[in-house]
Amino acid sequence: MACPHHPATETRGHRQACPRDRGAHRPRPAEPSDDGSPRRIASRAAGPPPVRTPPRPSPRHADLIRRARAPLRAAELGRDPFRPLRRDWERVKDDVMRRAVAAKFRTYADIRGILLSTVDEEIAEDTATDHHWGRGRTGTGENMLGRIPMRTRNQLRAEGRDQSG
User: Fold this and answer.
1) For the chain, where do the domains classified as CATH 1.10.357.40 start and end?
2) Residue 30 neighbours by CB under 8 Å, 6+ apart
3) Residues sharing a CB contact under 8 Å with residue 8, sequence separation 6 or more, in sequence order
4) Is the pLDDT of residue 20 over 80?
5) pLDDT for position 37
6) DSSP tag of 15
7) Global pTM value
8) Count of alpha carbons within 13 Å of 65, Cβ hemisphere only?
9) Alpha carbons 165 and 160: distance in angstroms, whole number
10) pLDDT band at 12, cuts 50/70/90?
11) For residues 98 and 144, is the Cβ–Cβ distance under 8 A?
């Protein structure tokens, strides 16, 4: 996928490095749409991941993912077919993502504010290629990358009430 700021970063289906990938891509504040369509918020925020990646067979591979300069590069490294996932990944992946998402929004106040500004709006990972993490091609996917931030939003809201009351 080409960078929205630099369309020339897509060549023959291969993504080249975008000049802004060095930690500059931050989610922009969500703004209400005039046509009633859902607001769009980037799920990938720049900055070091606030939690460690799941254990892999190679500590070197996990270190490469942690040191990636951009979230997209970390995702690409994590999908490397020559580096297998841990054996129990299917069982633990949602819990790993819950911990990572909660840590991300607790760590970075700017994106926490964006998440809380969505109030009770539905959040959806709008991808046709992933039925588990997104809505999938038919729109009936599990949408875990939408459901997990909504759960985190409710937890953050509850924590805020506990601290103020």
Assistant:
1) 88-165
2) 39, 40, 41, 114, 117, 118
3) 2
4) no
5) 59
6) E
7) 0.63
8) 21
9) 9
10) very low
11) no
CA distance 78 to 84: 9
R_g (Cα) of the chain, nearest Å: 17
Residue 68: its pLDDT value, please?
A: 87
Which CATH fold would you assign to the domain 88-165? Tetracycline Repressor; domain 2 (1.10.357)
Q: What is the mean pLDDT of the chain?
A: 75
Is residue 122 within 8 A of residue 146, CB to CB? The reply is: yes
**Identity of the residue numbered 152:** T
4 close to 27: Cβ distance less than 8 angstroms: no
66-78 average pLDDT score: 85
pLDDT higher than 50, residue 41: yes
Q: What is the rounded distance in angstroms from the CA atom of residue 22 to the CA atom of residue 20?
A: 5
Phi first, then psi: what are they for 78, rounded to 5°? Answer: -70, -25
What is the spatial distance between Cα 17 and Cα 13, in angstroms, rounded to a whole number?
Answer: 13
